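Re: your question from the hallway

Yes, I did run it. Sequences:
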Amino acid sequence: MTPPDLTSWLDHAPYSLRSGEKSRLLAKSLSDLTEWHRVACPEYARILDLIGCPQLPVESPERVPFIPARLFKEFQLSSIDKSLVFKTLTSSGTTGQQVSRIYLDRETASFQSRILTKIMGDVLGKKRVPMLVIDSPTVLKDRLSFSARGAGILGFSFFGQDVTYVLNDKMELDLPAVESFLERHSGQPIFLFGFTFMIWQHFYLALRDRGIRLPLEQGILLHGGGWKKLQDQAVGREEFANAMLECAGIPRVVNYYGMVEQTGSIYLECEAGHLHAPVYSDILIRDPKNFEHLAHGEVGLVEVLSLIPRSYPGHALLTEDLGRIDGEDDCPCGRFGKYFSILGRVAKAETRGCSDTYENHS
Amino acid sequence: MRTIPDISVEIRVGGSLGTLNTKPLIPFSEPSMAFLSELSKNLLSSQECRAYPDIAAFAYWCRAGNLARMSREFDGRFKRLGRGLTLHIAPANVPVNFAFSFAFGLLSGNANIVRMPEAKFTQSEMLCDEIARLFCQPTHAHVASMNRFVRYPRNDETTAAISACCQARVIWGGDSTIARLRAMPIPPRCVDIAFADRYSLCLLEAGAILECSEKTLSELAHGFYNDAYLMDQKACSSPHLVFWVGNAGQVEAAMKRFWSEVSNIVRDKYELQPVQAIDKFVHLCRTAIDLSGASSFISNSNHLYRIRLSQLPENIENQKGQCGFFYEYAAESYSRLAEIVGDRYQTLTCFGFDAEKIVDFIRDNGLTGIDRVVPVGKALDIGVIWDGYDVVGTLSRIVRGEV
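Structure:
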């Protein structure tokens, strides 16, 4: 059996499908992926054999069998021969924690970046933009086994040019580097990328402490990794955006939701402050009591669906995040598809997310 | 009398360690019985305490009548005396367990240092408060002088320092804690009671379940719920395997009757946290991948997961459920148990069987495990005979006079 070819999805603009059509197309492609992984990944096949698998193709995405995202921490789940592994992604995890291992072949890795390009085009346009990474270049030391942080930086660097790191090896501001970058690109749009907590800790607070304000009035800041650590400091979406305006005049701050298990199909925040599912992926909310699919507005466990994973059985994953679908096809921003909120992780679960990779050394 | 050095610990109840009176008493001594029965009375008369079923169970266990019964049933062939000082390492996950351990030590005639779980459970705090109140009363001054409740972070140095002064240690904590404590030097005569990681199962007779009245069925299901769910299947005596005995038709019908009753109770009473639902789901996938004998999976909700086994692997004891996750196997008789039971097996809860017959089966077949055969519903009923030990007997020494 050959894996399904889903590249025709790239013909769809990221937020172009309304619920009915999206659901129908997605169900078909996810069914194809389910069938493929069942043949190609023995562990996945055994799981479906035991928990049961509906007749394929299923008629709606809710019926696609899903597995826990955490399983990738415990088992090496792969649907390709070892010789075809092109890149292994690992999730973040502090010392002693198990990390997810995601095996990519060339095709899957390439599909990831093509889909990410479609999604990012919506924010950045088609041209590469001068880019500042609010992190330290040391994160990328090991090129064969990327951490989630490294994978994120590398993935998004693709959309930038003259990629410059804002922090040095010691996670301190590298002001000379930033200043000469700004001289080179004065008056141009700037793409900034980083992880929420690190931006706060090592960019905003560092600038504030030194009384510096950077001229980034044309900046677009993309950040992700979760709010958990900032919530502890009572910093939410609004406080964060205000802080960026204050320390660097950045007018546009875009949060995203995504995870290493489904790299590529990220969920971007729109101008109205909602996270949006692009056509290539979707969000379902499930009742922790029975895993039944919940209606819009109800809070439950977040399941993520993505068309990308074909080298590993990660197309339908139950996460440990709690969330809520806020609406579908009717966001004031004009994008079609579901929009939703992430309300944090379930209590006392294993920690997940990029911002937890980093131990506070101070 | 030996004194022990003032080791640095947080004293929860009692005076400093250096002032501890380690002179032993006889088992079931008058001061120990008086203390525990008053503790029982006070706990049972406090509405706040009674609201916690585990505190109530402890209080009910150490009521005067039950203490008198235990004393009567205690081996009277020899005169005995407590060993001296006993260190108790209480389990971290069961809030009232430290109180039972303390009571065992006290009833044996020992002075006790009880290391409390680090997590401050409401129940353990309430029990400590009540014990502290009694310690202040002149009538219980003797018991107060002999007992300390302490807290200290997981720390081998402190445990080793106390261990060096002990005549006995009661170690609840699982295999790794036991291994760590065993590596510490103790006085040559010191005895350890080590409660290791154990595995427990439930044996059900299909015919008996089909024939029993609705009322009996409901009691059985409640009993099973208590055994398994009260401690999220984390107690060593909570069942993981449900072994059905009967012919195929009977078993199918009995399963239906039993589980639908259990399922109703669970849905009513059990609060499953979202993280537990994920833990169970991960465990289900793990089971699918690793356990070749798993032939089917049955569940109506995340409250109750059942894995049907087509064959019973010899190492089924490695498969532990959690928060209502059971492995089921059916056979015409329970003789297959002889092939799987090893020394990790602790409690067999049963319904429809004569417990004495099962005990004989264990002895006749020379099984190295199963220390307790009790009716369904009694799995968590801890007592002075536990885990195959006569605890009071082990924590006391024989003083024999020959003519």
